[in-house]
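Field reference: sequence -> structure
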Amino acid sequence: MAMKNPFRRSAKEKPAMDNKTANNEANEPRTAMNDTPESATADTPSADENGELEVLKAELDLLRAEHQAIHDKHVRLFAEFDNFRKRTAKERLDLLQYAGENTLKAVLPVLDDMDRAIANNAKVDDIEAIREGFNLIHQKMVHALGTQGLKAMPDAKGQPFDTDRHEAITKAPAPTPDLRGKVIEVIENGYNLHDKVIRYAKVVVGE
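Structure field:
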């Protein structure tokens, strides 16, 4: 007689197990269909994220306003500097062209006196009157130039030769031993403009 296989299910047991499995599957909760998808919640910003976006937007607007203000200030400063540069260049040019305007205005009255003296000398035979007229004109000329800062150097005759004020055009035998190395004759006077030497005195130095 053949032995019965204990692991072999009979045809009657198999449907019973299949029904039990089906019942277990039917009773399991269907969480996958009832849960909300994560992608749907991820796309919707929360209240905190909305607040952060508003703060960032406000900061961006503030930075834009500051940038515009700095840009406008830069443009104004550049325009002002360009105007200043042009104005300074024009003033420098005018200064070079009209630097001697005040001096010439001071000398014009002396020129008028010279014209009158020349016209008057044609009718006057008195030499002393002519000399006096020229002396007065010379004094007026010196005064006019003095108001502009021009001043003649003191008479250098008999003074030691000074390279800061004198220009030796030649040397000559000194008339006395004590005049050796000193100025024995002034050919042209020297002049200072305020504290600056504008013309050295041309002198003869004794040797």
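Note: The first strand starts at residue 150 and ends at 152.
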